[in-house]
Write a structure and sequence with these properties.
This protein is mainly alpha-helical. Helices cover about 60% and strands about 5% of the residues.
């Protein structure tokens, strides 16, 4: 087998492994928001990037989205948690996808606009302020995920598991949305 084919297979295998890992992580973290306990709103979980957009839906790992929104909007976290829960319940699919539409993505822009409108109404905050806060949180989460990916790839390169060209190819694939749901 030629060196070019080996490199191509290595990059492809690495991209598939990364994509599978990100997919499993996404499925594992796409849980419902737990009822808030007797913890401080400034306390953070180890899964600091547990919020973000996934398939056009906001997910909230461990109440991080509620906490960050509460901080950015200057409102009580419990109110934000309740408003998010209400939105999630009101927008829960009532039927299974019809045959052939299982992989169809919902309109993420429309859902995000509906979320902002719902939160603004429930919290008594201007809709543009909610939209801005959601955009900031999404940008912060994307930057955090990009930094974590870069660190993992840099480590793989330094350990000799990947070449720099392979790491660059994985980064490009993620940023363009080919794997891992990146690129917006």
């Amino acid at each position: 087998m030629s060196k070019t084919k080996k490199i191509t297979l290595g990059v492809t295998a690495g991209a598939l492994a990364l994509g599978a890992g990100l997919g499993i992580t996404g499925v594992a973290s796409a849980t419902t928001t737990p009822t808030p306990g007797a913890t401080s709103s400034t306390e953070s979980s180890p899964q600091a990037d547990g919020q973000g957009r996934h398939g056009g839906h906001w997910r909230d790992g461990g109440g991080q989205l509620a906490s960050k929104l509460a901080t950015k909007l200057g409102v009580d976290q419990a109110k934000v948690t309740d408003a998010l829960k209400s939105f999630r319940e009101a927008n829960k699919p009532t039927t299974r996808p019809s045959k052939g539409t299982e992989g169809a993505k919902p309109d993420g822009t429309a859902r995000e606009a509906a979320l902002a409108k719902s939160l603004a109404s429930a919290l008594g905050v201007d809709e543009s302020k909610v939209t801005s806060a959601l955009d900031e949180i999404r940008s912060e989460a994307q930057a955090n995920r990009a930094a974590q990916l870069k660190a993992r790839l840099d480590k793989a390169v330094s350990e000799g598991k990947l070449t720099q060209a392979e790491a660059d190819a994985v980064t490009k694939a993620v940023n363009s949305g080919v794997i891992g749901g990146g690129g917006r």
